Amino acid sequence: MKSKVAGYAFIVGSVYYLVAEAISATLFNASIINTYVFHTISELGIPNANSPLFWLMNSAFILIGLTLIFGNFYRFKDYIIKNKAVFYILTLVTGLGVIVVGLIHGGNPLTSGYHTLGAVMAILGGNILLVVISRSMGDFSIFQKITLVLGVFGIIAFWILFFSMESIYMPVFERLSVYTLILWSFLTGVYLLGD
Fold it and tell me: For 111-162, how does the pLDDT look when each residue is reduced to its tens digit (9 = 90+)?
């Protein structure tokens, strides 16, 4: 029963995130392709005329953060054989980081530092969490191998993002480093439902 509850939570949280971003991007003050390529995810959450559905994007940040904390602490923790303390800490760092991104938007000089900190906690913390998870379960199964690939890919994308902050294509690397965690959440939901 716990696996089913956590599984559905992971799936709903990840699908909601992707749908909310797509809807917010559709109504953003740019074409949808330009929005995904040239505008960061955070821009979709800034309450201004460019993003009329800022509240929808911010709700997705908060929901995926809560989903990760709930799913990992409620059920997925039972699959972690070693590095449990690191798993719990990184889960909290990642989940709280995403929630901070949803509660404190960018674009405001007074609060942008907190938003950036939340983003680093969520993106870097989340991808490191995936690597830790992949090495902390029992047998090195297909699920763990996929988790490891996603984590390493996300860290590489974040590294490129970090050194291309002035590039017009920076939002592409941002999304690549974020989607690894979203995809993992969906796959984890499916994994738990099949348990």
Answer: 889 999 999 999 999 999 999 999 999 888 999 999 999 999 999 999 999 9
Give CA angle at 57 (108, 48), nearest 5°: 40
Q: Which of 126, 2, 145 is nearest to 71 (CA)?
A: 2
Question: pLDDT band at 109, cuts 50/70/90?
Answer: confident
165, exposed or middle or buried, with CB in 10 Å at 0-12, 13-18, 19+?
Answer: exposed
Residue type, 68: L
Give ∠ CA 57-62-65 in degrees, rounded to 5: 125
Buried b (16+ CB within 10 A) or exposed e, 99-113: bbbbbbbbeeeeeee
pLDDT digits (tens, 9 = 90+) for 13-57: 999 999 999 999 999 999 999 999 999 999 999 999 899 999 999
Would you say the C-alpha torsion 13, 185, 121, 37 has a positive or negative sign?
negative
Radius of gyration of the chain (CA): 16
DSSP labels, 96-151: HHHHHHHHS-SS-TTTHHHHHHHHHHHHHHHHHHHHHHHTTSSS--HHHHHHHHHH
Rounded Cα distance between 132 and 170, Å, is 26
